[in-house]
Amino acid sequence: MTLLDAEWSLRDQKRLQSRLRAARLKQPATLEDLDWQGSRRFDRSLLQSLTSDEWIRQHRNVLVLGPTGVGKTYIACALGHQACRDGYHVLYQRLPRLLADLEIAHADGRYPKLLQRLVKIDVLVLDDWGLETLTDRSRHDLLEILDDRYQTGSTLVTSQLPVEHWHDSIGDPTLADAILDRLIHNAYRLTIDGESMRKKQRLTPSAQSA
C-alpha cells in the first residue's frame, strides 16, 4: 500500500466512524457476527440479499418482525452498520422515544428542524413499532415523517406485533391507511421465529440441565 493509499484508507475509516457515531445504533452489531446457523428461523436468502445496498438505492423499506428476544434489534443494527459502511447516513431511534421527542419539539420550536433531519437520513431505523398506543399528534407526526421520506429514503422497522395488527394499533382508520400505505407496500418482510435469546441467557446451569 502506498502512502497515498494509506491516507485515503485512514480518511475512509474516519468518515465511517463519524457515520457510526451519528447513527447511534443501539448495539455494536455486524452481519459478520450474526449467527446464521443458530436455532432462530428466518429467511436466510432474504437477509443475505439485504446485505447489499440495493434496497437502499431503490428506497425500499424493511420490516423485521418476531416475538421479543429473537434478535430483531440486533439484525436491524447490523443492517444499519452495513449501510454506514456502504456510505449511507443512518439514524437509530426507538419509536416511542422519537414520538416523545417530537411532542417536545412541537412545544419548543424544534419540530421543523427535527423533521427535516429525519427526512434527510438515508436509512431511518425505527425500533419497537407498536409497543405503545399512539396519540392523535403522534399519528400525524408519523404520517409526516413517512410521507416526506416516501421514495426518497429507506425506513427499517422492528416490531413484535404482526403486520396484520398494525392498522388497529394505530387507532385512526384513515391515518392508519395513509401511514401503512407509505411503509408496507414496498417493504421487505423478514420474520424471525424462535426462543427468546434473553431468556436463554438468564437460565442458570441448574435450570439448563433441568
From TrEMBL:
Residue span(s) of domain AAA+ ATPase: 58-191
A single GO molecular function term of this UniProt record: ATP binding
NCBIfam families: IS21_help_AAA
Domain of life: Bacteria
Biological process according to GO: DNA replication
Protein name: AAA family ATPase
Alphabetical UniProt keywords: ATP-binding, Nucleotide-binding
Family under the similarity heading: Belongs to the IS21/IS1162 putative ATP-binding protein family.
